[in-house]
Amino acid sequence: MKVIEGGICSVRGVKANGIKQGKNGLAVIVTEGEHVATAGVFTRNKVIAAPLVVTREHIGKGKLKAVISNSGCANAFTGEKGIGDARWMAGILAEKIGCKPEEIGVASTGVIGRNINHGIIKTQLDEVFPILSNTNEAGTNAAHAIMTTDKSSKEIAVELGNGARIAGIAKGSGMIEPNMGTMLAFLYTDARLKDGIIDNCLKKAVDKSFNMVVVDGDTSTNDMVLLTSTGYRECGEAEFQQGLELVCQSLAKMIAKDGEGATKLIEVRVTGAESPGDAGRIAKAIVRSPLVKTAVFGKDPNWGRVVAAAGYSGAEVSQDKISLKFSVGDKEVMLVDYGKIVEGKLESLKEIMASAEIVIEIDMGLGKYGATAWGCDLTYDYVKINAMYTT
Questions:
Q1: Residue 260 lies in a domain
Q2: Of 182, 219, 210, 211, which Cα lies nearest the Cα of 72?
Q3: How far are the Cα atoms of 112, 258, 275, 361 from residue 271, in angstroms, in the given order?
Q4: Which residue is catalytic, options 43, 78, 148, 182?
Q5: 182 part of the active site
Q6: Which residues contact 85 (CB under 8 A, 6 or more apart)?
Q7: pLDDT, tens digit (0-9, with 9 covering 90-100), for 164-214
Q8: CA distances from 20 to 15, 120, 274 (A)
Q9: What is the rounded CA–CA span in Å between residue 140 and residue 327?
Q10: Domain range holding 31?
Q11: Phi/psi of residue 31, nearest 5 degrees
């Protein structure tokens, strides 16, 4: 398996493009193939945005031939009008492609409680649709179009040993956690998979990636991950799963690194937990903790906040069995060794805390299960961005 250039447009049967004008953007991705299949994972927020309602219905009726996604307006908490607007978006793209509206996925991101502007979306679609292509630039344009407070676009493509490709674009910067965040991810592959397998593979990959990212602890109304296969190449399930998880985890780390106002990426690796659920709870409690996040921002070697977060996570914990270390690259510092504090390590920890990417490893000493979560520091700029989000 290797990382390749080209983003989503490196996948056979995928064309895309996008446009960004101020806060308003529009991305269009169109697929073709003999064995097209689509799977989706959606927000667990009970206030669910209209585009997700419509897209879930469409996936339930079969495959998606295309996706239309706007940024600048979430079309969330907009009632029946919002549902109608999402159906309208599907309809205007379906008309251009020459397919049924039920074969179109719809996504939106932006401010909650506002209705979409038909004029802007129609005008942008008229500009984007004629320039759909399979070039690297077109895929990158689509990735830029769905950004909101993101500082950078997020895209990756890999080629498996058998030649099959998996690629994705994503957006996400704030309102991230506990199960995905204000994030959209559109994943594509030319691997041909048996019926039902693509859905199962996506759920497994999301659980190990997007569901393990924390920026601020808020769950969005608009989270959506879609995976579409164009089915041009035979592929084994195990190899495909490995590639899909690499793509999803890479995008998840990009989201964590690009958290609103963030200056540092935090990776938490838990080992020795009593159960898989406990491992996940501990990892996410640590990257979610405002005290851990602010300590990382301030380069404060206050490692006790990490074990405190593990202790209140709800997982089984025995403090006399915990081991803890921080690392960056090949430099690491052991702070707790099987419940005993290792003295004289604070200066070394300060050096690691000054790094842009920090790995926190905690061994619970209770079992064989592990999990990894990603997050970022909590900065003054996070407050500024979200205090003035609509102004």
A1: no
A2: 182
A3: 39, 26, 10, 8
A4: 182
A5: yes
A6: 50, 75, 78, 115, 116, 118
A7: 999 999 998 644 444 434 589 999 999 998 768 999 999 999 999 988 887
A8: 18, 11, 47
A9: 33
A10: 2-251
A11: -125, 155
